[in-house]
Write a structure and sequence with these properties.
By secondary structure, this protein is an alpha/beta fold. The protein contains five helices and six strands, in the order ααββαβαββαβ. The chain has two domains: 71 residues, Histidine-containing Protein, Chain: A (2-Layer Sandwich); 74 residues, Histidine-containing Protein, Chain: A (2-Layer Sandwich), CATH 3.30.1340. 41% of the residues lie in helices and 23% in strands.
């Protein structure tokens, strides 16, 4: 039995070697074959899942991403902690099919005034009777990004009225220079 197994290995080894070497890319070509739409969809879902599960991802961070057919994932947005930037990149690198991660996340500057504004805008938005329903989720969908006194609202709300109320609440906070409302309205969901 041992001889048969060894003979089989000796007979099949050249065929396996030829098959493996035939699949290696030619010299000078480094780009992998484009991923199928199904693979891109799977990676997109896994990226979202990994980002939502990051331990320090919260309402004061805005994580967005783009998955390209060549397996490149581009991270965009703003984070309030430098560790979150590296944690996000490391989590995405482990996903099967991801060839490369381009980390364009901006780390927001440390500022006691911005921290005060973050807390005040959070209380103004999530303390509002109409918007308080959004606070009940694990990661609240209205993200509050503050940089040098300027506020960006990102995420999603259910109704156009909720988007307008969130903007008005943010503008009512003392010390806010401007409010950019990038909230998306998911009507019908």
């Amino acid at each position: 039995m041992r001889i048969v197994a060894l003979a089989l290995v000796l007979v099949l080894a050249p065929a396996v070697w030829n098959l493996a070497s035939a699949q290696e890319p030619a010299a000078g070509t480094t780009s992998p074959a484009p991923l199928s739409n199904k693979a891109v969809e799977r990676i997109t879902k896994e990226v979202r899942h990994e980002l939502v599960l990051l331990p320090f991802y919260g309402v004061f961070d805005n994580l967005a991403y783009k998955v390209d057919p060549d397996g490149t994932v581009t991270l965009i947005g703003q984070v309030s902690r430098p560790t979150l930037k590296s944690d996000a990149e490391n989590a995405i690198k482990r996903i099967e099919g991801v060839e490369r991660v381009v980390n364009q996340l901006e780390v927001l500057p440390l500022s006691p005034n911005d921290d005060r504004i973050r807390r005040a805008v959070f209380r103004a938005i999530y303390g509002n009777d109409v918007l308080s329903q959004y606070e009940l989720r694990a990661v609240p969908p209205i993200h509050i990004i503050v940089k040098n006194g300027n506020v960006i609202l990102a995420g999603a709300v259910s109704r156009q009225m909720d988007k307008q109320i969130a903007e008005m609440q943010a503008k009512s906070v003392s010390g806010v220079f401007s409010v950019t409302n990038n909230l998306q309205v998911d009507e019908g969901k």
